[in-house]
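Human: We require from you a standard protein entry with sequence in single-letter code and fold as tokens, and nothing else.

Assistant:
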Amino acid sequence: MKPMKKKKIAVIGTRGIPATYGGIEKHCEDLYSLLSKMDYEITVYGRKYYLPNELKEYKSVKIKKIPVLNIKGLEAFIHSFISTILACFSDADILHFHAQGPSIFTWIPRILAPQKKIVFTCHGIDWQRDKWNMMGKTVIQLGELASAVFPHKKICVSEALSEYYFKKYKTNTEKIVNGVDIKQKIDPGDCCEKFNLEKSNYIIFVGRMVPEKAPDILIKAFKSVSTENKLVIIGGNAGVDDYFSSIKELAKDDKRIIFTDYLYQKDLQELYSNALAYISASKLEGLPITVLEAMSYALPIVLSDIPPHTEILKLNPASGISFKTNDVKNCENAIEKILNTTTEKIENMGQNSINTVKDYFSWDKVANLTDETYQKL
């Protein structure tokens, strides 16, 4: 009896894997490395400048590098178009588009390769991000419209996004959340020493320095808190130069506020491992992987009350604290509350974070649900 032929998946809309930054890249890295162990042959279309020259395969996932110029506002559009054309003429059975912008091209395989199936995953309402000008927002809105019309299967990473698509387009989507693995904590080391940090004497935020992540709210709130603890902001400039300069200026007179730039692997693991809590004042998210990462390190979470954050906290309210979005004073109160929480209660909140991850956000569950979606096609 002949062995079953593996289904072939083309992945479009990501810079590539392994991820160095970007939630979609991290999602794709973890998801497809698991699916490649199942009955799938995966090809990720990545951007050549983002990936190591010698890389052709990663964790059994094939990498196809597209040479596009790193031009702000154009690279993603050009890369997605070229990837779509190549995938149409490849032997892929399923084309899986990630994010709304790249999905502007989901109509192309409907015409050029009608035998192929199209899947789309929504990671957030991307046109609402502050970095886009009117032209950029319009293109992404067209991508959103296309994502509601042309794919055979549509996935959203949160309930809030599923509700958005149903209310706006009357289209049903499948909810398949982001995932995370339980992490091994490590002791303070070189990275903590470099930034003069001690175990449990700092709270952290991890993310791009863009307006919708609202690090300015965190800084303003933290500056009003009387404490010797520190606020550690892990991330760097993400193309919004004026905003990045403004938040550095805002924090310059407070030595307790530390910018580390982007951190990876052991350095990031070390700072997650030894933090007191994780905080995010974000105004726009899909389902933030950084929050799930923090929970996987048994950290209490302190989050703005946007729907995706609330969705996480509702699963286990004992894992963290919520505060009003875009409200500096309310954020300040939440910071004071977590800093004044007893060690025993902090540990209990952290354990509730771990339990939430185990119950709802394991990558094995995410991979199995994605497999079911593919099988339905």
Q: What stands out?
A: The chain has a mean pLDDT of 93. The chain has 14 helices and 14 strands. The chain has two domains: 7-179+362-376, 190-360.
